[in-house]
Design brief:
The structure is a homodimer. The first copy, chain A, has about 210 residues and is mostly helical. Chain A has two domains: about 45 residues, Homeodomain-like (Arc Repressor Mutant, subunit A, Orthogonal Bundle); about 140 residues, Tetracycline Repressor, domain 2, CATH 1.10.357.10. Chain A is built from nine helices and no strands. Chains A and B meet through helix 7, helix 8 and helix 9 of A and helix 7, helix 8 and helix 9 of B. Chain A binds a DNA duplex (30 and 30 nucleotides) through loops.
Amino acid sequence: MATARTTAAERRRQILDAAVRVFARQGFHTCRVSDIADEAGVAYGLLYHYFRSKDEVLDTLFLERWDVMVELIEQVDARTELTAREKLAAITSFIIDSYRHDPDLMKVVIVEVTRAANTFGRTHLDAINRAYGSIAKIIEKGMASGELRDTITPQFAAMTFYGAIEQALTGWIFDMLPTGDESFEQIKGFVVDTICGGLDARPAPDPPAGV
Amino acid sequence: MATARTTAAERRRQILDAAVRVFARQGFHTCRVSDIADEAGVAYGLLYHYFRSKDEVLDTLFLERWDVMVELIEQVDARTELTAREKLAAITSFIIDSYRHDPDLMKVVIVEVTRAANTFGRTHLDAINRAYGSIAKIIEKGMASGELRDTITPQFAAMTFYGAIEQALTGWIFDMLPTGDESFEQIKGFVVDTICGGLDARPAPDPPAGV
DNA sequence: CCAGCGATTGACTCGTCAGTCAATCACGTC
DNA sequence: GACGTGATTGACTGACGAGTCAATCGCTGG
């Protein structure tokens, strides 16, 4: 019987949601635990009833989101009817839509964990690398089928691809890129076009020199 | 007359160099000012004789290095005999060599400032954007001359290009990429090849559909 | 109506550091 | 060889914030 007004799960969620807003607004290191409690409208101590530490709150938020992303990547990879380029487009679209849908959460994931691998991400390097690995697999298959060039390693290609997306998100987070639905869609196209098509104008078939 | 053993400038340098090592090893937020003083072999208080705060030490390190980089980019751009691709290759080479030459310093610049734009970089967003702007100008000229495709904005192309380099540095910093001279040279090639040439195998001239 | 138990509260403890400052040192100068 | 100035020292202060805990609340089942 759901304990009256709010269940334990709901309360926990309420704290997590408040934490997202606070982390996004003030940054993880800068905010106090009391800020999160205030934002959630609960007492300071209650936070420690649901989480072992301030760190655990961030960990939870990150993993919740990141796991969804990794799973999405793997699902996309499984759709054998898609070309590598289409798979990359689907992933790009998903991540950018994630940002569009909940910018605060993505900001926390990117700024406080992914891009802060020193402090925090070190703990999550494995999770981060799993994502790279899955993307690399997609690219590897694309190379095997002849769709993609195999002059670079799939590993590096995956890093560059993900880097381009992260760079775009960072651009929005720090107001270096215009926001708005058109911008989101435009950038989706840019990411795939840049990574797959490259900057060079057409004529320039093979790498420099040769035997 | 150089005050005996060490001049003021030398002492200052000594502290900055120690700070680089400490920041690289422990991270800016995690280390104590006393760690820097110890590493430099000077008393705690002396640090405040040369710098107003712990932050100012990091600011100084970042700006010292970043300014050199921005200037390099502008110098490269001025060499009109180079193609856009060659300019991008020169910039890539310079940044990667900077890392090879002083990994600790580049680690601090990237991890503690550039990629931590929330905490710190916010102060330095202007400096960071200046670099993007200079790269964008190179790309813009390349587009104007017909060397590069102009289906994406120079601004976005610059972000992706710089993002690819940063991603590579991050890969080395967190041991996701093998170190060693060959790796450095190989990645230089990868960056330019990926960004300019794209992942697609040749035949695929124009964007999808069309009028 | 009461006992029991998890949820909830927030004042308090306890460490940790950034930054200060008065004292001391080591030159160069006259 | 005394004086003054800037370099150097490190003990100390003050603020701050994570995590604790004993007390209270409000169900629920008997």
